[in-house]
Amino acid sequence: MTGKIKGTGACPGDRLVTNEDLAEIVETSDEWIYSRTGIKTRYLSTGRGTSEMAAEASRRALENAGIHPEELDLILLATSTPEYCFPSSACQVQEKIGAVNAAAFDISAACSGFVFALQTACSFLASGSFQRILVIGADDLSKITDWSDRKTCVLFGDGAGAVVMEAEEGGLFRGVMHSDGRKGRVLTCLSRSEGNFLTGKKPEYGFTSMDGQEVFKFAVKKVPECIDQVLSDAEISKEEIRYYILHQANERIIEAVSKRLKEPIEKFPMNIREYGNTSAATIPILLDEMNRAGKLTRRDKIIMAGFGGGLTWGAVLLEW
Ligand code: COA
C-alpha cells in the first residue's frame, strides 16, 4: 500500500511585491536580488494568515481531487508560522473547510516541512491507519521577517499549497528525512523568549536571521546526497526520473544541484522568479502549477526535495 496524490491546490499571498518595491525600503536593487537568487517578485499576505491561505489551498486541492472534506481522515500542516501556539493551524483548517471526521496536527520542519509531512502521510497510508490525508505546506513568513534586514527580507514570500493523498495498492514511494540540530543557529527565528514573573524578562518575539553562505553550502551538499540515497534505496536510475521538484530557495542552489547530480536543468522546474521562497509552501505551489498546466502524466516518477531550518533536509520519490 502507498499514497497517491489525487489533487493539488495553492493560494499565494494577495499582494505582488517587486524587487523595485523592496529597493524603496532597504538598500538593494533588482540587479543584486535577481542575479544572486533568481527572484523578481513575491506575493505577500495583507489579510489572510497561515490558516486562511492553507484553507483556501485545501479547498482547491479537494475540488481538484473530487473529494469532499468530510471524507478526509487526517490533516497534516507543515508550517513555521502558526497564528496560535494552540489550536494548531491544522485544526484551524479543519474548522474552516468542514473536515469534521479528520484528526489534525501541525509539523514543524521549516522549509523541509512539506517533504517531512508528505513522508509522514505516506507512512500512515502504508500502515493502513488512514485512507485520505490532506497534506499542506503553508507559511506567512512576511510576519517574521525583519523588513530592515536586506540580507533576508528580499528572499521570502507568503503562500500555501496542498495535496490530497489517498491510499492505493501497489505504486511507488521512498523517502528520507534528516536533521542536524547542531547547526540550528545557521537559520533561526525566536518564537517567544523565556520571560515570566520569575525571570523579570518581558516575552520577546524574534525575526528570521540567517547565515546565507552556510545555508547555501549546506543545501548544495545535502540535497544531492539525499536524492542519491532515495534513488539507491528504490533501485531506480536517474534517467527514470521525470522531474526533480526542489524547494525554491535560490535558483543558483537548484542549478548547483542539477550539476552535482549530472541531470539536465530542464528536469528541475522552477517558479522562484515569481514567488520567492515561501518556505513549506514552495513545493506544493509548484506541484499545483505543474498539475494544472498538464505537465504531469500518470506514472511519471518525481522526486521532491527540501531543506531548511533545523537544520533539516529530505527527499521523497513518488509515482504521479
Ligand atoms: N542587496 C544588496 N546587497 C546585499 C543584499 C541585498 N539584498 N544582501 C546582502 N548584500 C550585501 C552584503 O552586505 C555584502 O556586502 P559586503 O561585501 O559589503 O559586506 C554583499 O552583498 C555580499 O553578501 P553575501 O551575504 O556574501 O552574499 P551572497 O552572495 O552569499 O548571497 C544570499 C546572499 C542570501 C543570496 C545567498 O547566500 C543565499 O542564497 N544563501 C542561501 C539562503 C537560503 O536559501 N535561505 C533559505 C533556506 S530554506
Structure description:
There is one protein chain. The chain has a 5-stranded mixed sheet with strand order 1-7-6-4-5, with helices on both faces. It has a 4-stranded mixed sheet with strand order 8-13-12-11, sandwiched between helices. A hairpin with a 3-residue loop joins strand 12 (301-308) and strand 13 (312-319). Helix content is 33%, strand content 26%. It contains 10 helices and 13 strands. It has helices spanning 19-23, 30-37, 50-65, 89-97, 113-127, 150-153, 212-234, 251-261, 272-275, 282-292; strands at residues 2-12, 15-18, 41-44, 74-78, 103-107, 132-140, 158-168, 173-179, 187-188, 209-210, 241-246, 301-308, 312-319. Bound molecules: coenzyme A.
Question: Key features?
Answer:
single chain; 320 residues; alpha/beta; 5-stranded mixed β-sheet; 4-stranded mixed β-sheet; 10 helices; globular; binds coenzyme A
Concise summary:
With 320 residues, the chain is α/β, with parallel strands linked by helices. Helix content is 33%, strand content 26%.
**Adjacency order of strands in the biggest sheet:** 1-7-6-4-5
Computed over alpha carbons, the radius of gyration is: 19 Å
Order of secondary-structure elements:
EEHHEHEHEHEHEEEEHEHHHEE
Number of helices: 10
Q: By helix and strand content, what is the structural category?
A: alpha/beta
What is the tally of beta strands?
13
Average pLDDT taken over every residue: 96
Give the amount of beta strand, in percent: 25-35%
- Give the helix level as a range of percent: 25-40%
How far the N terminus sits from the C terminus, by CA atoms, comes to 15 Å
Low-confidence stretches: none
Shape: globular
Main beta sheet strand tally, sense and closure: 5 strands, mixed
Q: Cofactors and ligands present?
A: coenzyme A
